[in-house]
Amino acid sequence: MVNIGNISLPDFPLLLAPMEDVSDPPFRAVCKDNGADLMYTEFISSEGLIRDAIKSRRKLDIFDYERPIGIQIFGGDEDSLAMAARIVDVTQPDLLDINFGCPVKKVALKGAGAGVLKDIDLMVRLTDAVVRSTSLPVTVKTRLGWDDSMLNIEEVAERLQDVGIKALAIHGRTRCQMYKGEADWTLIGKVKNNPRIRIPIFGNGDIDSPQKALEYKNRYGVDGIMIGRAAIGYPWIFREIKHFVQTGTVLPPPTVEERVNVVRKHLQKSVEWKGAIVGINEMRRHYANYLKGLPNIKEYRSKLVRLTEEAPIREVLDEIIEKYSGLEMQATPIELINYHEKCPVN
Ligand SMILES: Cc1cc2nc3c(=O)[nH]c(=O)nc-3n(C[C@H](O)[C@H](O)[C@H](O)COP(=O)(O)O)c2cc1C
Fold this sequence. Notes:
By secondary structure, this protein is α/β, with parallel strands linked by helices. The chain folds into two domains: 10-247, TIM Barrel (Alpha-Beta Barrel); 256-324, Putative flavin oxidoreducatase, domain 2 (Non-ribosomal Peptide Synthetase Peptidyl Carrier Protein, Chain A, Orthogonal Bundle), CATH 1.10.1200. It has 14 helices and ten strands. It has helices at residues 25-33, 46-51, 54-58, 78-91, 105-108, 120-133, 153-162, 186-193, 210-220, 237-247, 256-274, 276-290, 298-306, 310-324; strands spanning 2-4, 7-9, 14-16, 38-45, 69-74, 95-100, 138-145, 167-174, 201-204, 224-227. Strands 3-4-5-6-7-8-9-10 form an eight-stranded parallel beta barrel, surrounded by six helices. Strands 1-2 form a two-stranded antiparallel sheet. Strand 3, helix 1 (25-33) and strand 4 (38-45) form a beta-alpha-beta unit. The radius of gyration is 20 Å and the shape is globular. Flavin mononucleotide is lined by residues 17-20, 22, 42-43, 72, 99, 101-102, 141, 171, 204-207, 227-230, 336, 339. The site of flavin mononucleotide has 23 residues, from strand 4. It comes from Niabella pedocola. Residues 15-318 form the DUS-like FMN-binding domain.
């Protein structure tokens, strides 16, 4: 078992990474169904929470079936983070996570997210302020450092543990790498194997197959793995990794029925949580991923993205089941998209 404060997770837990505009309740629901052991909300601005911005408040929505779930906040000011922590407390998630990893300009260059990696003393003060303002277990998610000349994650891990965080998730890139290159897990392994470190260390970055997950588990000894992009359009990654780690055998890819059932559930949750118009609209970006690999699916896909009401969408989904029922699906490699490709680093 892996313990984060008072939360007990199974051995080698799989975490769904916090992802802005992705890890919302509908997406989390299908990841939970498919084996995610711990999930996080999208990051929430501490300033936004304090101003009571509707967009930030809405991201606090969590449901009992999602537990254990963490709410992630970011900010660069001690008082604001402390106040945001008190607001989060009222929502009663299972844990509170601080984002010290976001590389995008609007966050990192304002001294929040990965921006804090340039100033460990500040990071420690911010974390301490949060730990003192909440009774929830506090965790941190961060990167290896600001850039290749400032790879300070080993010091960061020790100092954050000393101020009371209960787990650390490390994305194996620097801020300046954004999403470029390959994630380097060597330093993550070093942090994990530092005898002073007692808290769980979760590795993150580029896990896109059960084989890679097991290889990295064995090579770096991490307590669990956090998965982001691979779960987008493929929530089955969680159950596939679990199965492979436990048995050494590869699960067959999801059947057509399973794929359509995930679309149905995601759609239902989207409509419930976002309302019909926004829910149906935002589902459009998901169909292609969920239905990938079905031969000649284009015709159905273009119908799905044009329809504006739930009932006819559900009819098309029924048609897909009818047409492809019994089709043996082939496994297709998961593509990891570089989401911030166009985001300037400076
Ligand atoms: C679209 C998108 C949004 C993200 N938003 C957040 C976020 O809100 N908070 C955070 O800590 N990391 C965020 N990340 C980073 C991921 O949590 C994760 O660290 C990163 O994608 C690397 O993991 P992966 O290779 O498994 O995707 C985001 C990543 C993506 C692709």
